[in-house]
Amino acid sequence: MTATDIRASSATLDRSAVTKPRNMGQIIRWLLLFIGGVLMVMPIAYMISTSLKWPHEVYNVNLIPQEPTIENYTYVLEDGRFYWWFVNSIIIATITTISNLLFDSLVGYTLCKFRFPGRQIVFIAILSTLMIPTEMLVIPWYLMSQSLGWLDSYWGIMFPGLMTAFGTFLMKQFFESVPDDFIEAARIDGLNELQIWWTVALPLVKPALAALAIFVFLGNWTAFLWPLIVTNSVEMYTIPVGLSGFGDEADVAWELIMTGAAISTIPTLVVFLIFQRFIIRGVVMAGLKG
Amino acid sequence: MANLSLRTLTKAYAQTEVLHGINLDVADGEFIVFVGPSGCGKSTTLRMIAGLEEVTSGEVVIGDRVVNHLEPKERDIAMVFQNYAIYPHMSVKKNIAFGLRSSRMSRPDKEARIAEVAGILDMTHLLDRKPAQLSGGQRQRVAIGRAMVRDPAVFLFDEPLSNLDAQLRTQMRLEIKKLHQRVGNTIVFVTHDQVEAMTMADRIVIMKDGHIQQVGTPSEVYHSPANTFVAQFIGAPSMNMLPGTLNGGGVRLASGQSVGTIHTSTTSRPILLGVRPDDLTLQGSGPTVVTGHVAVREPLGAETLIYVTTEAGEVIAKADGRSPPDVGAHVTLSADPANVHVFDADSGSVLT
Ligand SMILES: Nc1ncnc2c1ncn2[C@@H]1O[C@H](COP(=O)(O)OP(=O)(O)OP(=O)(O)O)[C@@H](O)[C@H]1O
Ligand SMILES: [Mg+2]
Predict the structure, then answer these.
(1) What distance in Å separates the CA atoms of residue A89 and residue A263, rounded to the nearest whole number?
(2) Of the residues A34, A242, B222, B252, which has the fewest C-beta atoms closer than 10 A?
(3) B107 lies in the same domain as B209
(4) Are residues B37 and B127 in the same domain?
(5) Residues in chain B closer than 8 A to A196 (CB atoms)
(6) Distance B68 CA to ligand 2 centre (A)
(7) Final residue in a domain of this structure, among B216, B232, B248
(8) What is the distance between the alpha carbons of residues A102 and A122, in angstroms, rounded to a whole number?
(9) Where residue B304 sits, what CATH number does that domain have?
(10) Angle at the Cα of A46 (from A41 to A48), degrees rounded to 5?
(11) Cβ–Cβ of B130/A286 closer than 8 Å?
């Protein structure tokens, strides 16, 4: 037997020994993924299905509407209120997202790359706010907004979320992956610290910024409790607040809520499609040793 | 004229002093290489020159200015990092142009300067690429280009070649040396590779534990090492050190063998006798240093390293590449007294 023969036969041996378990493993994996997929897709499927049903059919569990209709869409889109909520939500989610991208990364960068007295304390203080649930904060926020005259305004809805501890933490962690060499090289090249942050550090953490943008946008787009509390007039509602009140007091109009919800997923899809292409790993490493 | 001076420079991190008074004058256009084992403070010294690290005490003088309190950009220096640190999100051209950001040149002048540098570094065809599309050597060249474009008073290199493979390192070594001959700026280059230091430097600064051990031309540090550390750090394989006592100009080795008159001093004291493998000959011209048996041979082609077991310990010598002595053969190793170094056993300093 020559050396090649031995290698060839051992290769076939290996293959037959490995094939079966791998197939079994694959079946189980596919199965789990399938179950997971169904669990995630079902609510969306029902949302769309319900939005195409007549009111009398809403409580039937059938996925395919018996008499599909786009009546609900016409109604929601022609109803002036939904238009207002949509614009409100867009403005609030966009401004909040931009603000988070700027300030979370600025603070995260500072905490990560500068050594100053009290740095650790500041960081811990920021982190500790993560442990306080929104439910506990809404009352102080409300009292604050009331005394400052921010109730029922964009600023009132937005101010608690313009910077987040989570975003700051996320950005700080990502800046850890930016080697100090880049920053020092820029310092030697004559940039000031703000320029270094903007032209050198930020582009290197684009994936994190994109993730944060998606996260913050979705979070604000779907925020319910605080906008519900801080707004009074129908024109100031955001989509979730507005939709929850669709229909009259006695009878919740699920088909309209689902229609509004279906329409309101569109911007989130757009945001996701815009930002997900930035979530590519390995950008940082390319300027370093090969 | 000194272009860069370090005056009793020290550095302490918290309470720990890591540099203990560095004094050095670098002439305009000189190529200085800092070499030493890991952790000896080479990078720290370089970073203090660059302004990336604060000076604890002492002075850094560039040109005729004390620059201790100037920002890096105000010091008229440029630095090339071990990891290149070229910005991955910018094209090669942008990276090089970055070095000119703070200059007051007009736009066409800048363009011309970038083109000139790209030409010198042979990168004109790479200008539009992103760093990810370059090889390691090309990336390092971009980093050098970014530093060069500003024509600084002093170039600082911190182990710029250590991420390259052996062949490329040899090639880049030569390129940097040629570049230096062409542009003529002062260069301070840090490495832990003594071959790099020997081949590139006008003068070598050998450091250990935050102290300068010796400053000299490659030939000086090789042929007249100031102490045992320098003697063993420079040159491969390193210098043989045989313990003994100096006695009336001759040396009696600890093993009992005695070596002929090799030193003028007549005071008796414990010493280390240093002799390079290259200087030990088998032919017997000059006084015999040691005798022993060949234990191992390492053929290197042109020559063969022989490891000789002697009563004074293992001694490395170089023998002919074509007809080296057999393993087990009894050999007599002798050396020209001029090539034998005598070091004080306690301080390690050379006795002259
Ligand atoms: N930020 C720091 N804090 C405390 N000690 C430090 C710091 N930076 C460096 N040191 C210490 O200073 C000494 C010199 O470090 P330096 O980086 O200059 O060594 P080096 O000669 O460049 O070594 P290498 O060849 O490994 O790069 C080392 O003992 C190191 O532990
Ligand atoms: Mg170093």
Answers:
(1) 12
(2) A34
(3) yes
(4) yes
(5) none
(6) 21
(7) B232
(8) 18
(9) 2.40.50.140
(10) 95
(11) yes
* Ligand 1 atom at minimum distance from B190 CA: 22
Distance B45 CA to ligand 1 centre (A): 10
* Same-domain status, B72 and B187: yes
Q: Is residue B42 domain-shared with residue B158, that is, in the same domain?
A: yes
Instruction: Check whether residue B66 and residue B122 sit in a common domain.
Output: yes
Residues within 8 A of B (CB atoms), A 145-184 only: 179, 181-182, 184
Interface test with B, best of A181, A182, A189 (most B CBs within 10 A): A189
**Ligand 1 near B268 CB (within 6 A):** no
B34 part of a folded domain: yes
Q: Do residues B97 and B198 share a domain? A: yes
8 Å CB contact between B253 and B259? yes
Q: Look at the block and give the residue holding tokens 């203990």.
A: B20
Assess whether B202 and B331 both reside in one domain. no
- Give me the residue from A184, A191, A286 closest to B88, CB to CB: A286
User: Alpha-carbon distance B255 to B261, whole Å?
Assistant: 17
| Cβ pair A288:B84 closer than 8 A | yes
Peptide bond into A179 cis (omega under 30): no
A76-289 CATH fold: MetI-like fold (1.10.3720)
352 residues of chain B, pLDDT tens digit each:
468 999 999 999 988 999 999 999 999 999 999 999 999 999 999 999 999 999 999 999 998 899 999 999 889 899 999 888 889 889 999 999 988 887 788 889 999 999 999 988 888 999 999 998 898 888 988 999 999 898 899 999 999 988 888 888 898 899 899 989 988 999 999 999 999 999 999 999 999 999 999 999 999 999 999 999 999 999 989 999 999 888 877 788 877 777 766 666 667 888 899 999 999 888 766 777 788 899 999 999 889 999 999 888 899 999 988 888 999 999 988 888 888 899 999 999 998 7
Tokens 């050198």, located at residue: A200
